[in-house]
Amino acid sequence: MLVKHGMNHLTVLNSARNHKLATSLAVLRRQQFLTRVLGVRGEDRMQDPKFEADADNILRAITPVLDPTRHKGQAGKIAVIGGCREYTGAPYFAAISALKIGADLSHVFCTKDAASVIKSYSPELIVHPVLEESYSVGDRDKDHISRNVVAEVDKWMERFDCLVVGPGLGRDPFLLDCVSEIMKQARQSNVPIVVDGDGLFLVTNSLELVSGYPLAILTPNVYEYKRLVQKVLNCEVNDQDAHGQLLLLAKQIGGVTILRKGKSDLVSDGEIVKSVSIYGSPRRCGGQGDILSGSVAVFLSWARQCILADEGNLSISPTNPTILGCIAGSALLRKAASLAFENRKRSTLTTDIIECLGISLEDICPAC
Ligand SMILES: NC(=O)C1=CN([C@@H]2O[C@H](COP(=O)(O)OP(=O)(O)OC[C@H]3O[C@@H](n4cnc5c(N)ncnc54)[C@H](O)[C@@H]3O)[C@@H](O)[C@H]2O)[C@@H](O)CC1
Ligand SMILES: Nc1ncnc2c1ncn2[C@@H]1O[C@H](COP(=O)(O)OP(=O)(O)OP(=O)(O)O)[C@@H](O)[C@H]1O
Ligand SMILES: [Mg+2]
């Protein structure tokens, strides 16, 4: 085929090398330009040490001691809204991560197709097959079905310390309408919401669901962040002023907390910006964001408990529980990913990282 086009392997290799060289030169020139203009390399500004969170101390401060007088439920009850025909892994990863970190109960609200599959992954999860997609509803009374779906989740709502909306949710319009109603109920009950994956697709198109809700956390990956920036700020992602843009974005959505995932994780509530740059893993296998959303939900719940118990005298800063939850979740995931990679190298998978969550937390705050 190559010969047919008048190229042999050597010419292809040379042209590939030349292309690589030209790209490297272009990157170098751009970095030199930024260094001249900004005084610091653009990428490095995202890892400026003065913004780096004191993640270990935060983890120590908010992780509850294993007190024998506590009863089941006090270490956290998390619910994941997600899981459909296509995706069963994502809600499982989020929900099981919450348990592995130390939450007492982890629920999953998903479609009927997904439920038995998720149950078969683990008997530890409480799985509710309540969500419906358009294909299963057909011409039946959609209003009636929607009311039932929302009521099924709502009867549990008061018990939850945090909802995670989106891992493996899919994008079916009827299902997303029901989830919008569930989010409104959660907000009315003052239940914190971590929005991830397809939940971000929903929220980006219906910002009013989270706008002005201080207990909402958005955890966008690179594409989800791009879509959010385009929608809210009407511009492109600006990595030269990543902190400023994230601050502005969080402020524009009424002070929600945003955890921008990437080489460094950046967190802002519209007032401050913090970064977590602990070395994680070079493996980018799918599912790591799901571990993060489940972890953030648990740490946010623990941070809120701590703040209530200490009546605001927490010895760490910042003190916003959503920011604390994001920092703790991000740091723990990165430590676990690093440990898993040490053992598994290129074959590191999300399930390997989940197995390292416990030991990674143990290293920072021993159970006894
Ligand atoms: N095992 C599982 O069940 C998993 C399910 N997941 C779920 O899958 C659903 C979809 O999430 P994804 O993060 O995969 O989202 P997308 O389906 O939007 O993106 C999938 C991939 O497509 C590419 N892509 C997306 N937008 C792009 C763009 N604008 N330009 C170029 N490339 C682009 C990227 O490589 C991206 O990682 C979510 O519900 C998520 O929670 C993921 O969490 C991964 C694991
Ligand atoms: N380039 C990177 N270098 C180091 N860590 C990264 C990098 N990109 C992402 N991460 C880490 O991986 C975690 C998951 O981020 P990622 O962007 O993979 O999420 P995601 O695409 O939503 O994942 P999922 O597949 O679960 O949907 C983040 O907390 C982040 O710390
Ligand atoms: Mg994701």
Strand order of the largest sheet: 3-2-1-4-5-6-7-8-9
- Bound molecule kinds, no repeats: ligand NAX, adenosine-5'-triphosphate, magnesium ion
Q: Mind summarizing the main beta sheet?
A: 9 strands, mixed
How many DSSP E strands?
9
Residue share in helices?
40-55%
Going by CATH, the homologous superfamily would be Ribokinase
In percent terms, what proportion of residues is strand? 5-15%
How many H/I helical runs?
A: 15
Characterise this structure.
- By secondary structure, this protein is of the alpha/beta class.
- The protein has a single domain (62-364), classed as Ribokinase (UDP-N-acetylmuramoyl-L-alanine:D-glutamate ligase, 3-Layer(aba) Sandwich), CATH 3.40.1190.
- Helix content is 52%, strand content 11%.
- It has helices at 9-38, 42-45, 55-62, 89-101, 112-121, 134-137, 142-157, 173-188, 198-205, 222-233, 242-252, 288-309, 321-344, 350-355, 357-364; strands at 77-81, 105-111, 126-131, 162-165, 193-195, 216-218, 257-260, 265-268, 273-276.
- It has a nine-stranded mixed β-sheet, with helices on both faces.
- Strand 2 (105-111), helix 5 (112-121) and strand 3 form a beta-alpha-beta unit.
- The longest helix has 30 residues, at 9-38.
- It is globular, with a radius of gyration of 22 Å.
- The protein starts with 8 loop residues before the first helix and ends with a helix.
- The relative contact order is 0.13.
- Mean pLDDT is 90; it is low at 1-16 and 30-43.
